[in-house]
Amino acid sequence: MAPRLLLITQWFDPEPTARGLLFARELSKRGFDVEVVTGFPNYPGGRLYPGYQIRGIQREVVDGVRITRLPLYPSHNHSRLGRALNYLSFGLAVVAYGLLGAERPSVMYAYHPPLTVGIAGALIRLVRRVPLVLDIQDVWPDSLQSTSVIRSRGVLKGIGWLCDLVYRMADQIVVLSPGFKALLIDRGVPASKLKVIFNWADEHALVHDEMFTRPDNFPKRESFVVLFAGNMGSAQALESAVEAAARLERSGESVDFVFLGTGVRLAALKSLAASLRLSNVRFLPPVPMSQVGAYLATADALLVHLRRDPLFEITIPSKTQAYLAAGRPIIMAVPGDAARIIDRSGGGVIATPEDPESIVHAVRTIMSMDPVERVDMGRRGRAFYTSQLSMKAGIDSFAVLFRSLTSANESGSRTAR
Predict the structure, then answer these.
(1) Sequence-separated contacts (24+) of 78-87 with Cβ below 8 Å
(2) Which pLDDT tens digit goes with each residue over 1-58?
(3) What are the backbone angles phi and psi of residue 29, rounded to the nearest 5°?
(4) What does pLDDT average to over the chain?
(5) Helix, strand, coil proportions of the chain in percent (round to 5)?
(6) What are 348-352's contacts with CB under 8 Å, separation 24+?
(7) Strand ranges (DSSP E) for 193-286?
(8) Shared domain check, 288 and 255
(9) Which of 147, 227, 244, 254 could lock 359 by a disulfide, CB 3.0 to 4.6 Å apart?
(10) 64: closest CA among 92, 27, 97?
């Protein structure tokens, strides 16, 4: 009999998520009987997707994967109360379903954040004696404090206490970087309970050199194009990249910076570029993931940038994997784990965050390379991604982990009898 995997995640297709239908489908192909427990899709806008209506329970089967949707309070805006109700309502629904409605699984997987999913998984584990794997994509309360989502020290301390409790109850904890692992070890989590499994890119959305059509709104071919693709928020601190573009334009170098996407700092970035009267900075609206690959493949260099923050030194921005898979030289302006990946891969150069001159130096370093050298740099990055960070490598690691817990649990049950 195939081991039953209960995959608990608040966000699932058609919502954007790192552990969506593709993840569940690949685990099913590896011999697991997968049931996804999720909510009614409303992220990131906070409104239900067309074709969905909140009800008690909705069941679907997609590509052989059973999906159970539970009711929640749809919200994802700046209202802390709305966000709290969104998280809490889903967490309570998961506990009720996991204890009263779900067939007993062989192993459970819970995706964090939000913490309420981890708490729900821990409660189900406590009652039903099912091993729990907690996948931590965001370290709470650190990230909540760093992004000023929560400022109250008392609330942050309470969230930290709850996190520690869930960590103790989980059988295994998956983290996305060595830095996350070191941080949790410092907080008392046994190293034997922690496993690093790197995130992977949406590989189907990426294209190789010979497969793309140059976007019409890209700069002319003669210039060297540096592309940033993704969210433009306060954490990205992209003012430094605009300042770097200004220095390169003043020096007469043919370099264009392209910012693809949107975010809360987009208007401010546009205003800064306008005040500096830059002709080498272009802002493009977000495009579907199916089109992002063409933009990445067209650029000469791809920029990753986060502001200086100790938390970001143990973070690997998700665009890192996508950039490596795209096979283009990378300018990595994030220190710590992310920089070490680029250094190990040989797929780019390192810059100092929030330092325009360092970004300028990185751009000039890649520009000065022979075209063949640049191609080789991109290929090294892609080869590293394929061997170390690909979807296959990641899901294979998850499958091994799930099977080991299933075997240990079944062995323990037989011994108890």
Answers:
(1) 80/149, 80/150, 82/46, 86/42, 86/46, 87/10, 87/114, 87/115, 87/116
(2) 789 999 999 999 998 888 899 999 999 999 999 999 999 998 877 889 998 999 889 9
(3) -65, -25
(4) 90
(5) 45, 15, 35
(6) 348/301, 348/302, 348/323, 348/377, 348/381
(7) 194-196, 224-229, 255-260, 281-284
(8) yes
(9) 244
(10) 27
CA distances from 230 to 3, 222, 289, 295, 322 (A): 38, 25, 11, 12, 11
> Does one domain contain both 235 and 121?
no
Q: Between these two residues, 414 and 51, which has the higher pLDDT value?
A: 51
CATH of residue 125's domain is: 3.40.50.2000
Together in a domain, 175 and 229: no
pTM confidence score: 0.81
Residues 273 and 141 in one domain: no
Same domain for 138 and 159:
yes
Same-domain check for residues 182 and 234: no
Q: Are residues 181 and 242 in the same domain?
A: no
- The predicted-structure confidence for 301-312, as pLDDT tens digits, reads as follows 999 999 998 888
Instruction: Give the range of the structural domain holding residue 142, as residue numbers without chain letter.
Output: 4-200+390-416
Same-domain status, 317 and 358? yes
